[in-house]
Amino acid sequence: MLSVQNLSVTFTLYDVGLTQKQLTVITDLDLEVQAGEMVAVVGSSGSGKSLLAHAVLGILPPNAQTTGQLSFKGKPLTPARQALLRGREMVLIPQSVGFLDPLMRVGPQVRRAAQLNGLTSIAAEESQQRTFKRYGLAATVTSFFPFQISGGMARRVLTATAAAGRADLLIADEPTPGLHPDAVTETLNHLRELANEGRGVILITHDIEAALRVADKVAVFYAGTTVEVAQASDFANGASMLRHPYTQALWRSLPQNEFIPVPGAQPMPDALPQGCLFAPRCPLVTDVCREARPTQYEVRGGLVRCFHA
Predict the structure, then answer these.
(1) Which of 17, 116, 223, 260 is least enclosed, having the fewest CB within 10 Å?
(2) What would the mean pLDDT of 154-160 be, rounded to a whole number?
(3) What's the mean pLDDT in 218-239?
(4) 100-104, 258-262, 276-280: the lowest-pLDDT one
(5) How many Å apart are CA 2 and CA 197, to the nearest integer?
(6) φ, ψ (nearest 5 deg) of residue 12
C-alpha cells in the first residue's frame, strides 16, 4: 500500500546573518506498509519518526526538500496527489492536540473528517457517536470546544477524527501519551482492528512494549534512517533474534529484560559520523563501520543496515 524508498529530507536554514545552510535530518530511510498490516515505528526523539509521517502526507514546511521515492497503492505520491488524498485516503493522528481547530466544536470536527472520507452527513454523525462512545467520551463532549476538554480527552478526539472515516492508511503519531491505561489499550486495539479490516496502519511510538502487543512489524529508526525492520515476534525470542546492535540494545534496556541503558547519545543532524550512524556507540564497531555506511539487506526474514548482522 505505502512504499518509502531512500527518503531523504533536508531543511534550508539561516545560519549567521543571511547565510544559509543545508541540514539533512533524514537519510536513505525505507519503509513498506501493506494493506491489513500494522507497522510500529520506534526510536528515540530526533530519529525522524514524525518527519516521516509529514513527508508521506506532504505537510513538511516550505523550507524542506525531499528526495527518494514515495508511492501509495502503486502510484507515485506527488505533491498534487498528496493534497488530493490527505484527509481522505491517508489520515494522520497527530502528536500535538494543537491540531484541533480551537474555534470549532469537537463533534463537528470529527463529523467533518468522516464526510471528507466519503460518508454522508447521517453516517458521519453515527460514526462520530460510535467512536466517542468507544473512547469513553460522553455525548455532551460533542458540543465542547477544544479548550473545554482535558489533554487526554483531546487526544481521544484526535484518534476518533482519524478512525471515524474510511481512510485506507492511518498514521498514528504517539497517540497514547497522557491516556489512562484502559484508554491506551482501547486505542491500540482499535488501531489493530482497523488493520484487520484491511487498512494500513503506522504506529509511531516510544513505547516498544505497547507496540509489540499489536504490531505485525517493527521498524527501528536511528539518526534519521531505518536500521532494522523486524517481525514483532522476533522481539519475543530475545536479543539474539534481532539483527542490529541498536535494536538489541533497545530490547536489553527494557525493565523486564536486562534494564541496561544504551551508552552515549544519538548524533545531531549536523554532526553525523562519516560511516555507520551507530558506530560511535556500537560494541561491534570496526574500521569498515567508521569508513562507510551499510546498505539495507535481508537477514533471517528481516531488513537491516549493519556490516555485522
Answers:
(1) 17
(2) 89
(3) 93
(4) 258-262
(5) 16
(6) -95, 120
In contact, 273 and 279? CB cutoff 8 Å: yes
Q: Determine if residue 221 is left, alpha or beta; phi over 0 gives left, psi from -120 to 50 gives alpha, anything else beta.
A: beta
> For residues 87 and 115, what is the distance between their CA atoms, to the nearest angstrom?
10
129/149 Cα distance (integer angstroms): 17
Task: Provide the number of structural domains found in the chain.
Answer: 2
Please, what is the angle between helix 121-134 and helix 151-163, to 10°?
140
Helices (H), the chain: 49-57, 79-85, 106-116, 121-134, 151-163, 181-196, 208-214, 232-236, 245-253, 287-291
End of a domain among 146, 165, 184?
A: 165
One domain, residues 207 and 269: yes
Residue 178 has pLDDT above 80, yes or no: no
Could you tell me the residue range of the domain that residue 151 belongs to?
102-165
* Per-residue confidence (pLDDT) for residue 219, from 0 to 100: 96
